[in-house]
Specification:
By secondary structure, the chain is α/β, with parallel strands linked by helices. It is built from eight helices and eight strands, in the order E-H-E-H-E-H-E-H-E-H-E-H-E-H-E-H. The longest helix has 19 residues.
Length: about 260
């Protein structure tokens, strides 16, 4: 057993009504949903968040909130608005983006890195007051676009309520993926799971079963103490049938 439970990022079906996404997650036998802050649970729309919280609780699904808050471009008041939606959603975790989006980590000065770390630290402290953890998206063109920068950032933040996600850059070879998780795995809360090549073509998760089974099995012990989710993110052709197939594959990977 890997210690991860199967889940879904609803950005996978950005244009699909939230209720239908929920139905698919239940049909797929998942444990949790990360609701997209740019689609299904927009910051500030707390009635929608509360309604989905009730529906998820009835379905036995845990929740996370995938926000697009990007400190230090976005400040603490912007974060608080997203956090209020996460709380209304009953989410135990809120995901944010580290640094200005669409900017490579190598382009930051040391002063800019310190500013970003301080902003994230303040957000981690604010979320902790409400019992919500903060996790940083691990993504190209961010301050977590490679493992060395991510490790430096999490060390600079130095707050026990701030964690990292992990996902492979499209086409990342297995050896490099294992090196990354070895370096940052102790800070990883959840992972985003998909099967893409370097040109961002999407494939069935079955084609990457060995890759993901190995990565998740080799993920180091983490300081994270809550439930851990392996979240499906994007499927071939945005097809619900492809999603159900990938979800079955993911459950099989995690069970083994």
């Amino acid at each position: 057993m890997s210690g991860f439970e199967p889940a879904l990022c609803t950005v996978t079906f950005r244009k699909m009504p939230a209720e239908r996404v929920l139905e698919l997650a239940v049909q797929a036998g998942l444990a949790a949903i990360e609701w997209a802050g740019d689609a299904h649970v927009v910051p500030g729309d707390e009635p929608v968040a509360r309604n989905l919280a009730r529906l998820c609780e009835s379905a036995g699904l845990a929740t996370s909130y995938g926000s697009y808050v990007a400190p230090p471009t976005d400040d603490l008041p912007v974060f608080r608005r997203a956090l209020d939606s996460a709380i209304a959603l009953g989410a135990s975790n809120i995901r944010i983006w580290p640094g200005t989006r669409q900017r490579d980590s190598k382009d930051y000065s040391e002063g800019e890195r310190r500013t970003a770390a301080a902003a994230i630290r303040d957000m981690g402290a604010e979320a902790a007051r409400h019992g919500v953890t903060v996790s940083l998206e691990y993504h190209p063109q961010s301050l977590t676009d490679e493992s060395d920068s991510a490790r430096r950032l999490i060390d600079a933040i130095a707050h026990d309520n701030v964690y990292l996600y992990w996902q492979p850059r499209p086409g990342l070879p297995l050896g490099e993926a294992l090196a990354e998780v070895a370096q940052i795995g102790e800070h990883v809360s959840h992972v985003h799971v998909f099967a893409w090549d370097a040109d961002r073509n999407r494939f069935s998760l079955r084609s990457a079963s060995d890759y993901w089974r190995t990565v998740l099995a080799e993920m180091p012990a983490s300081r994270w103490t809550g439930r851990r989710f392996a979240m499906l993110e994007f499927v071939a052709n945005d097809d619900p049938a492809a999603f159900l197939e990938d979800a079955a594959t993911l459950r099989h990977i995690l069970e083994r």
